[in-house]
Amino acid sequence: MFYTYILISESTRKLYIGQTNNLDGRINRHNRDKNFTTKNKGPWKLLFHREFNTRSEAMIYEKKLKLYKSKEYLIDKINKNEL
Question: How far apart are CA 15 and CA 13, in angstroms?
């Protein structure tokens, strides 16, 4: 299984969108500052995730989510279960 996920920083309130085949391990890496983009900006909390059968499906969905430039819009869509 592959996952597209959205994390939110509990300190900066910034969002991070990514994809992985090991969701728990990936979140742990973010929280241990093993990712350059999220380093020193955590702790990170999982806000949303969706499961896919293939990596290409997860990557396509990740790119779609990254097209939304508004953090508030994404959070609103998550809260309304519209993603």
Answer: 7
Q: Token pair of 6, please? A: 């959205």
State phi, psi for 3 to the nearest 5 degrees: -135, 140
Complete edge-to-edge strand list for the sheet that includes strand 44-52: 15-20, 2-9, 44-52
Enumerate domains of the chain plus CATH numbers: 2-79 (3.40.1440.10)
- pLDDT tens digits along 45-79: 999 999 999 999 999 999 999 999 899 999 999 99
Distance separating alpha carbons of residues 9 and 68, to the nearest angstrom: 18
pTM higher than the cut 0.90: yes
The 10s digit of each residue's pLDDT in 13-26 is 999 999 999 999 99
